[in-house]
Protein 1
Amino acid sequence: MAATSAPLGQRAEVMRIEGVDKVFNGDVVALKGLNLTVNSGDFISLLGPSGCGKSTALRLIADLIHPTRGRITWAGGQKAGDLGVVFQEPTLMPWATVAQNVWLPFRLRGKTYNSVKDEIIEALRLVGLDKFQNAYPRELSGGMKMRVSIARAMVTKPRLILMDEPFAALDEITRFRLNNDLLALKEKIGCTVIFVTHSVFESVFLSDRIVVMAARPGRVIRELTVDAPYPRDEVFRTSSDYAAYCRQASDALHEAMEGVAA
């Protein structure tokens, strides 16, 4: 069932990051003073050069690591268990079928395959792979493997999905197609997405908020709003509005990189 997000500025808060520092090995400052509010229905891209703490921020939100200072709070007491995560590599189990891979989040919650089979097949249908449910990862293309990973992340219908450069290793045509499909999936399940990318073009096409980060230390230097309606398609991708937003994001990214060089 399609879900339409409220306009920016009218969305309920999901989680908040306040004054978060993350220091590794006592002196490596990965993040400094990170502040970010995430609202229901947001599509937020974290855009910045390597080493600016984008992936570290995702790991903090996922509760895989903990802040050195500051705090992360969840509206209504929501915990990080209500998350789906998609990594840069599909990280599929090679010995398991496509359907068994998508079953994994339910399996970790103690649910049998048969009790959630309908949800698994529906998730695969949404990513166009229901006819491949009995295939093994070795039989799939790179784009198909990533679709399985996305189905696995969304099968439990989480409120928030974290995506760490999931399309970076794919060719441009496949990447564009999956960008289109991701927006359609987000609309269908009504989730919130935080998406890490190095690509200005990808961030503008997907996002309604772009958080630009700089490194040494990792920090937010600017937030941009992409005030273009969804659904987005090739008409938007080739429009003057898209080009203008890309210029803004590119300027902010250059500012972030100059900060690194300084």
Note: The chain has two domains: 11-30+41-82+159-262, 92-157.
Protein 2
Amino acid sequence: MTGQTFDLGPQALIVARLADAVTDDRLDGATPCPDYAVRNILGHLAGLSVAFRDAARKDLGATTDTSPDSALPDIGLGWRETLPKALDELADAWRDPAAWTGMTRAGGVPLPGAVAAAVAADELVVHGWDLARATGQEYAPDAAALQASYGFLGAVAEDPTRGGGIFGPAVPVPDDAPLFDRVIGLSGRDPGWKP
């Protein structure tokens, strides 16, 4: 990871648009995450948006201390309004330079601010792909978020103890594959997955 700051806003907006296009008949559809239906991906996106918003604000507590695998996430009532709002708040919180400094916490894991931002970017990039693939939507992630995701996943791949078991084994992808395919492979997903 470069340590440079970047704007999570463009990627958050892409994810919000993907979510907005999900029709109710797709909510129970399969996703690249074997244990998650579309509704669970949306619920996870909502939860991580709040957690990483609070991590940026250094507002540590239940939202930043809960492990993402403590319960199967699901969408709540009004998710079509609350998810885009949470994504917007997440992006806005990381626009504060103080978010990138010092230590914070997400998923109960202490992290330097800049690392937490890269994790947030990775979550948005990879779960954006999950959502797009599961619902048949076109998807091109924001370049800055994609680069941050690649930096984070590359560091985890080089030091598996840092991943804490949150990723499946990397799926081999050719070295000359597009960066996006390499990111998806590093996240433990098959870039060719289809429902």
Note: The chain has a mean pLDDT of 92.
